[in-house]
Amino acid sequence: MSLFYYEDSDDEVANEQKIVLNSYSNEENAKDNNDQETVSLSQQQQAEQLKQNKDNDLYPLLPKDEEINEDDLVDHIDPVNVTLSLSLKFQQLILQDLISDNALLIMGKGLGLEPITANLLHVLSAPATTISKVEKKSLVIVLGATDEDNEKINEQLIELSWLDNTQRAFNIIKSDKQDMNKRKSLYQQGGIMSVTSRIFIVDLFAGTVNPQKITGIVILHPEKFNDLSNESFITFIYRQHNKWGFIKALSDSVEDFSSDFNPLEKKLKHLKLSKALLWPRFHIEVTSSLLTKDTKNVTEIKIAMSPAMKQIQIGLWANLKKCIDEVRRENSELAPDYWSIENALDSKFINTFHIIFAPYWHMITFKTKQLIKDIKVLKDLLHFLIYYDCVDFREMMELVTDGNKAKIDKQYPISSLWLDTDEAAAVLNYSQKRVIDESGLVLEENPKWEQLAILLDDISNERAHDSKKSGPVLIMCTDHKVKVQLQNYLSMMKQSKVSRAFSARSLLLKKYQRFRESKTIRNNITKEFKESSSKENEKEKIYLSKAFNRQPVSSKRRRTRGGSAVAAVGRMWSKPSNEGEDLESQITREDLEMELMEVDLNNDEMILSDNDEEMVEIENSILLERDIIIDNYEFIEKENQIIIESYNSDTDDSVLQELSPSFIIMYDADLSFIRRVEIFQAINVDNPSKVYFMYYGDSIEEQRHLLSIRKEKDSFTRLIREKSTMASRYDDEDVSQFKLKKSQVMNTRIAGGSTFQNSSQESIVLVDTREFGAPLPGLLHKIGMRVIPLQLTVGDYILTERVCLERKSIPDLIGSFNSGRLYEQCERMSKYYELPALLIEFDKEESFSLEPFSENRRKKNKMKQVNESIANRDQEDIQQKLALLVLRFPRLRILWSSSPYRTAELILELKAGREEPNILKATAAGSNTSKNDESVDPNNTNELYNLKVLDLIKDVPGGMSQVDMYSIMRKVKTSKELLNLEKSSLIKIVGDEDLADRLYKYLVENYK
């Protein structure tokens, strides 16, 4: 077994180094032919020689030859000519700064982080030294890369290799399918290695890769990592044993860096970096590079929302403000200034509630928890209003209101408090009017749809007069659902014969027909559940503030008509859910089919666009929100192509470069893509694209876009201010490691503690390789323990020959209980170890209580409403399962840890005064599956108790104490031996004649 040994920490390695130094000294003295007495090297000379030995062993590519001087091996160290693909000046300057410093790069969104990363790796992996006419390959490790990052980096490195006519090896390791020997071979070959942090930290601890042979580390997405991330521990280990290699980190998410106090200083400290490079969009070099003569070639199309959409937006916005204000009132001591309606459109707004409330979650009221969910629902409704059609929004409102009616089990009344306001009534009323009113089906189309059709018609006319515009039309939208919606609209829209008006009523008719069918199915299911549910359950009382009480109607006269907002919300709560609205019930399915047929065949007022017959076939076969499969294909000229894509930061650059569109229509606002278009325009100065930017005026869409620009600017401003006042950092800072000796973890209160092995021996912990996704192994190394990764069958952490630890986070514990895996794990631990332990570890940001159990159980279902009684039942269920687990395994101990730091302290306490674990016994435990559980060797400490004995005695009539069970299991090793015992022998074992009599009769009646 190959284990990685660190200098200063192993006696054997130190002795080997002394032998090498002594032989080196003897050879030098023999060459001098001096009769002087041999003098041992001083400590300073030894240190210098050790350093020289390290430097000589960096790249063991060639064998040592005593007759050849090492200086003669090095042919030359010359600058390397490397061809880059960066066209803009500011990108070239960024690359120069990154090459010269171990720095953290933070860029503005969309400014080209991906090509800068690829060019950086291309430069750093270039061989700069030649030994015996063989170019030495560097080893560059890439951490934090996603699958999309790896794909893009690989493509760009291939292109750069073509330019330089040199191949750069790029290997990806993201799973354990490649064994350790194969990974070791890849490391020795050199090149660029993209490795997951979990696998790489295992390779560091196991000695698969030597830090001294790593040229450098490049970290992507450093904003995701903290002091307990594997990336932090990797840089700590790397900088301990390699002072000359580089570490570089690159990010374009500046908002994630400004959420903490002194974030820049902390990030540099965690990643062992010495400098920060800040490149916002307002940087003078960026501005000058992107400022071209066609920069203003952008047409803004400001579209007015319909009156109904405006009223809905006003109502949702007012309710959102009420919910935020109520949360602040309920939690005034914790509420920051950030919780305001001005920041509600921020994408990270909901996360701030969980971050701030997490440590106090067990003390937060049910009302506050429900308000947080209401805020998220209201934000989703605003998103649906802006980006989706009227039928989608109506369906979303139906789901929200149906889910908040009096529940089937009637444990509590309405959950969402905002639905009891006047504004909610107006929202419900206008959402219905967009679809249907007293006159019949309205089916209001999105105002953007018609403007998009008119714009495409203008582009077609412009192409006829400008032959240079030969590229396709690229339409970019917010997500896949909007993309499918636009595809359906453009394929089904019709133009008026007498005007430029466009319409796609057939599309909305089909969607409404599907909505009616799904609503019928939903109502039938609800009716069945109501009939089978119990009628009497205790209701929980919710105390509302005045903000969520509807004001009384000023007039009780009969002038309040059925279509008013007040009447609409009254009908909503009073009607059974299986009854549709009055207006909808008047329109039958046959009416919908008839109108749909009339729209398709009405050629007097509406005409189809080109290729009428083919378009009709597509209409009849189209499946809403599904891919259209067409058997016949034909070539479409590039200038006739209309390509619709959704925003994706991983593919936007490649889309622009591959398509080279002549017209770009941003159907929705996206700050990152706007920057990418700016770069695309600056590179293609000779033939720039014409850009159109569509947005709703005086809407949340406009406000969200302006807010994203302001937040990025403010975040860069704070980081620039911090950088100007930040003290300088050095590479040697904070890389010292505690060296815990056996004497330092010795507990003198335990007798015999001084009789163990040499007190200078390091404290060792055996860790299962699957545990390296958690921060605990790296934390144990940082406090001075030697962490040895192994493939363990029993337990996660082997602390001593007697103590085995199974670590569970809250989600893991719930999943293990549900799957039954935890029972099997505890059974194996109890079989092979005398002191098995289950460690339940909380996140350091969570409340140290039973509250996270109930919250994590429903985390996957984000729309599920909060219910305090259900949460209490979940907590009781977990407690019952833990109690049954302890009763089933009497020797199992449950340890509770509030954070990984506390877990490290517990492990130190458990190891105090005890022997070190045995690697061979730990790996052998549980590996022999063919071994018979009945044959237990009393002298074998790996099999201490036979659990089948417990299965025989646990159901004895009258019950049995845990002490008696433990005594029987300790003295009786097999079930066969227990069945052969006489009554007198049982009395001697348990010391209770009555218990022995009951046990003897039970065994005779059931097993003999």
UniProtKB/TrEMBL annotation:
GO biological process assignments: double-strand break repair via homologous recombination; double-strand break repair via single-strand annealing, removal of nonhomologous ends; nucleotide-excision repair involved in interstrand cross-link repair; resolution of meiotic recombination intermediates
Gene3D superfamilies hit by this protein: 3.40.50.10130, 5' to 3' exonuclease, C-terminal subdomain
Keywords: DNA damage, DNA repair, DNA-binding, Endonuclease, Hydrolase, Nuclease, Nucleus
InterPro entries: ERCC4_domain, Restrct_endonuc-II-like, XPF_nuclease
Chief site of localization: nucleus
Domain of life: Eukaryota
Gene Ontology MF, one: single-stranded DNA endodeoxyribonuclease activity
Region (Disordered): 25-45
Location of the protein in the cell: Nucleus
Residues annotated as domain ERCC4: 764-844
GO CC annotation, single: nucleotide-excision repair factor 1 complex
Alphabetized Pfam families for the sequence: ERCC4
Family, as annotated: Belongs to the XPF family.
Record's protein name: ERCC4 domain-containing protein
